[in-house]
From TrEMBL:
Single GO molecular function: lytic endotransglycosylase activity
A GO biological process held by the record: cell wall organization
Top-rank EC class of the record's enzyme: lyase
Catalysed reaction, written as an equation: a peptidoglycan chain = a peptidoglycan chain with N-acetyl-1,6-anhydromuramyl-[peptide] at the reducing end + a peptidoglycan chain with N-acetylglucosamine at the non-reducing end
Lineage, highest ranks first: Bacteria, Pseudomonadati, Pseudomonadota, Gammaproteobacteria, Litorivivens
Gene3D superfamilies in the cross-refs: Classic Zinc Finger, Endolytic murein transglycosylase
Function: Functions as a peptidoglycan terminase that cleaves nascent peptidoglycan strands endolytically to terminate their elongation.
Any Pfam family hit: YceG
Keyword match Cell wall biogenesis/degradation: yes
Protein name as it appears in the record: Endolytic murein transglycosylase
InterPro entries named among the record's database cross-references: MLTG-like
Enzyme Commission code: 4.2.2.29
UniProt keyword terms in alphabetical order: Cell inner membrane, Cell membrane, Cell wall biogenesis/degradation, Lyase, Membrane, Transmembrane, Transmembrane helix
Disordered: annotated span: 323-348
């Protein structure tokens, strides 16, 4: 028995030495920087992709300069193979195989952003999402919107103003309808938060009417500090049964070809339901996506007696309590510069 052990000892030593050298060689390879073509290489690890398949793909693409089995064996021995998470990963230069495994286990995938802007219309939002290069396109304008978003249709099915403008983060594989669904739910959440805290005795019968007012405030405001005062002008006019007489509502109701050239004849058009120069009260729907600040202003207006305002030309407005004061402000700030200027709002 001892003789056999003595005979096996040299072979055992050789085997141990070879194993140790193999481990050292493997460690050296796993420690070497990956061969990345670009400074920010994108690895798309799709759901259901096995670790062996991923390692083989990296070897085939030359990202790892050693047999894929080395990475595969190491990952299985350490438990990393079963812990990786699918998604799109950005591999920075200098990353080695150990770093790669840690990244895939962490799930720190690439995130993209979609920003919906305050004051956009629903059509502008849809166009933006349709052109976003990182979103999968699912929205079909020929199909019912609310069914596509998988939400219960609201009482007012017109989608204008029902999506909250904000920046939405998403990962590869996200859809345009997914962003729309998040924006819709966010708007409902904001309204549910703000409506109960509203000022007393406002002329709104529902959060939806407040949303309509907020959209008008959003379109009329050039300076943030004026939002509540602008809201106050419109609320005061509603309370006095005066027409709102605001250009943005009229423009919203015009055909697309005429929106950029508002004329006096448009202000006399009774057929436009959004013509607040002719129709009293709020327009039928919101006219844009209002942000939280505009919603807050609509629910907390500052009423200081002003019933009119006119643009000064620098983004701010001159507010007036009487028609005479307003007409003088129009002469001071606008008519001297542009004879065809129309102020908003004007006389009752």
């Amino acid at each position: 028995m001892v003789k056999w052990l003595k005979r096996l000892l040299p072979f055992s030593l050789v085997a141990i030495t070879l194993a140790a050298l193999t481990v050292l060689w493997a460690d050296q390879k796993l420690s070497e920087p990956l061969n990345l073509v670009d400074d920010d290489y994108l690895l798309d690890l799709r759901p259901g992709t096995g670790f062996s398949a991923m390692a083989a793909s990296l070897a085939a693409d030359g990202v790892i300069a050693y047999p894929a089995d080395i990475l595969n064996v190491y990952a299985r021995l350490t438990g990393s193979a079963g812990a990786i998470q699918s998604g799109e990963y950005r591999l920075p230069s200098g990353l080695n195989s150990y770093d790669l495994l840690a990244l895939l286990v962490s799930g720190d995938v690439v995130r993209y952003r979609a920003t919906l802007i305050e004051g956009w219309t629903f059509a502008e939002m849809v166009s933006y999402l349709a052109e976003h290069p990182e979103l999968d396109k699912r929205f079909d304008p020929a199909q019912p919107l609310w069914a596509q978003l998988e939400v219960t249709a609201p009482l007012h099915e017109n989608p204008e103003g029902l999506f909250f403008p904000d920046t939405y983060s998403f990962v590869k594989g996200a859809t345009d309808t997914g962003i729309m669904k998040r924006a819709y739910r966010r708007m409902q959440a904001v309204l549910n938060q703000e409506w109960p805290k509203r000022s007393d005795n406002l002329p709104y019968d529902s959060p939806y009417e407040a949303l309509i007012m907020a959209s008008i405030v959003e379109k009329e405001t050039g300076q943030p500090h004026e939002r509540q005062r602008i809201a106050g002008v419109f609320v005061s006019r509603l309370e006095k049964n005066m027409r709102l007489q605001t250009d943005p509502t009229v423009i919203y109701g015009l055909p697309a070809a005429e929106k950029k050239n508002l004329r006096s004849r448009h202000l006399k058009d009774d057929s436009n339901p959004y013509n607040t120069y002719r129709h009293k009260g709020l327009p039928p729907t919101p006219i844009a996506l209002p942000g939280r600040a505009a919603i807050h202003a609509a629910l907390h207006p500052v009423q200081d007696g002003a019933l009119f305002f006119v643009a000064k030309g620098d983004g701010s407005h001159q507010f007036s309590e009487t028609l005479e004061q307003h007409q003088q402000a129009v002469r001071d700030y606008q008519l001297k510069r542009r004879k065809d200027y129309r102020s908003s709002p004007t006389k009752p």
